[in-house]
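re: ur question from earlier - yeah i can do the single chain one, its not a big deal. heres the input i used so u can compare w yours
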Amino acid sequence: MKNKELKILLSAPRGFCAGVERAIEIVEKSIHKYGTPVYVRHEIVHNKFVVDDLKSKGAIFVEELEEIEDKSRPVIFSAHGVPKKIPEDAKEYNMTYVDATCPLVSKVHREAENLHKSGYHLILIGHQNHPEVVGTMGQLPKGSIDLIQNEDEAKKYSTDNKKISYVTQTTLSVDDTKDIIKILKDKFPNIKEPAKEDICYATTNRQMAVKNIAKQCDLFFVIGSRNSSNSVRLVEVAKKSGCLNSQLIHSQSKIPFDLIENSNTIGISSGASAPEILVDNFIKELKNRFTVSIDEVEIIKEDVVFKVPKKLN
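and the output i got, formated as tokens:
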């Protein structure tokens, strides 16, 4: 069985981005500083392995502050960002809180606030109910920001506001977002765009890396969680870039050995919240069955680091 030769193209960069590394470090340093338990509002990042690991170290995950029984314990806000009301509620409860919002998401929040203050009506391009979208919309008064999820919604969108502007979720597909923006610009020639792209460097780099190798692959696997926006987008990018047989490998996935058996070259990447150990374990499983050669294809070196809040050092 093992004599089947399999070539793996390993996409780089992949896996953890600087915002995810910072968020995990914030939880670990908070546990170190405040003892256990510390509470985390929403999954710190969208990955079961990471969440389970932090649970074992003393983190308790909740969806809302009301669920926290002992309000004397600190709470951490997830990397996806939170509506303005949440830190205000934490202050009302007299809670210590640490904000692990990714700095690139915070940048979009500030951008949205500044545009609103300058009299712009905002459009947010993103996915409904994703925590990042809930957080960004929650920076502004109701009715001053509208969500557009796809090209159809962009085509149907209308507003009486003269001054309009858009921001985007940081983990979208670069190509899909371009198409939505084009529709909005055609419709509203004076629409104000962000000074700098909102889609984050890590999302862009991982998508470019997948595009770079997808067409050479018979099968493409993205290691990541089903609720991880950037992981799901990577699967879409691989499909659009020439590998129709692309799928997400999440915590409940069975490895499709029958499909791999009929392939010569497979591509592997991982979402920005997936730890490298999951990629290693996946490759180990393949090595148990096949004769594997690995070619890591790196398109760009990432050296971005975000510091944790001073109060944790």
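Residues 19 and 102 are 5 Å apart (CA to CA). not sure if urs matches, ping me
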